[in-house]
Amino acid sequence: MNEPDVLIIGSGPAGLTAGIYAGRAGLSVSLLTGAERGGKLNLTDNIENYPGFSSISGYDLMAAFEKQAAQVGVNFFSEQAQVTRFSETSLIVETENQIWHPKSVIIASGSKIKWLNIPGEERFKGKGISVCATCDGFFYKNKDVAIIGGGNTALYEAVYLANLAKNVYILTPYPVLHGEYFLRQKLLKFSNVQVLYNTDTISFEGNKKLNGIKIKNKASTEEKIIAVDGCFEAIGFVPNSALFSGQLFLDKKGYIKTNKTTMQTSVPGVFACGDVQEKQYRQAIIACASGARAAMSTEIFLKSKKYPKILF
Fold first, then answer.
1. Is 136 a catalytic residue?
2. 6-112+237-304 and 121-233 share one CATH topology?
3. Could you tell me which CATH number the domain at 121-233 has?
4. How many CB atoms within 10 Å of residue 115?
5. What is the pLDDT of residue 307?
6. I need a surface site. Which of 203, 237, 253, 278 has the fewest CB within 10 A?
7. Nearest partner of 296 among 27, 77, 21, judged by Cα
């Protein structure tokens, strides 16, 4: 069991899609679910842009992916990769329970939340500061909240919270919101949402819990504190690639370098897909496409082993 044709690290849309394609190719597939089974999408309340579904929760979508993967023979292990040793002649992955010797590896470890790292943040994490509106939004019903960020994640959070909170402040350091047009238009329907453009977040204020955020207008340099009961950070993500540092080629931001056609990394037999290597279009459908590419490339590699060392 610990010598599968393919070992997949990660259970988000990229990893599960890779499992489905590899399983359908007749390969023996083992998948390490990691700490976040289903990935970040599992915490997304409502998805409206995945083909075939006008509206579906991330949890339901990932459950369907996992069911399909199981049907084609993917074996799931609730374990997390802790040590990897990759070379041209040997691929080894250690978890808390066993040592794996797969013939190939597909890395789909995703990304983690990026934090601001400003005064007061550590103090108020879980005491007013959150990164998941779906998880914690209920606690702020009819209260004032802020969202830091201006991309799709921030706007999704804003739409969700606008139906619960009294007032929602979107704090963005940019002169415009960068989320997709559909989400920007959706926000216009809510009278309780206010966007503060060109705004830097300086610190989080409070005593036992968060009760305010110090902000600074980048144009006027004016500083003030806005009173809020909660804050949701949505400023981006950091790839979960530390485990592979020194073994695979990473870019300056830590994303795994891959050939965009084959998803091959710098080590033969090791492929990467999803947010751990995608730094621009972090969408579920993009992750799925890269997972499919990785699995099909893995099948070719196992049959021929003719891929050169690097195809960047």
1. yes
2. yes
3. 3.50.50.60
4. 15
5. 59
6. 253
7. 21
d(CA 46, CA 180): 15
Catalytic residue among 5, 45, 136, 200: 136
Do the Cβ atoms of 307 and 263 come closer than 8 Å?
no
Q: What pLDDT, in 10s, does the model give residues 114-166? A: 899 999 999 999 899 998 888 889 899 999 999 999 998 899 999 999 999 99
Name residue 180's amino acid: E
Select which of 5, 45, 60, 135 is catalytic. 135
Say how many Å lie between the first and final Cα of the chain, rounded: 32
Question: 68-108: per-residue pLDDT in tens?
Answer: 999 999 999 999 999 999 998 899 999 998 999 999 999 99
How far apart are the C-alpha atoms of 303 and 179, rounded to whole Å? Answer: 42
Q: What is the distance between the alpha carbons of residues 312 and 302, in angstroms, rounded to a whole number?
A: 20
Residue 44, token pair as written in the block: 């997304």
Catalytic option among 132, 200, 251, 273: 132
**What is the rounded CA–CA span in Å between residue 43 and residue 132?**
8
Q: Domain ranges in the chain?
A: 6-112+237-304, 121-233
Distances 270 to 99, 279, 301 between C-alpha atoms, Å: 17, 19, 10
Rounded CA-CA distance 165/140 in Å is: 6
Q: Residue 311 has what pLDDT?
A: 55
Q: Is residue 132 flagged as an active site residue?
A: yes
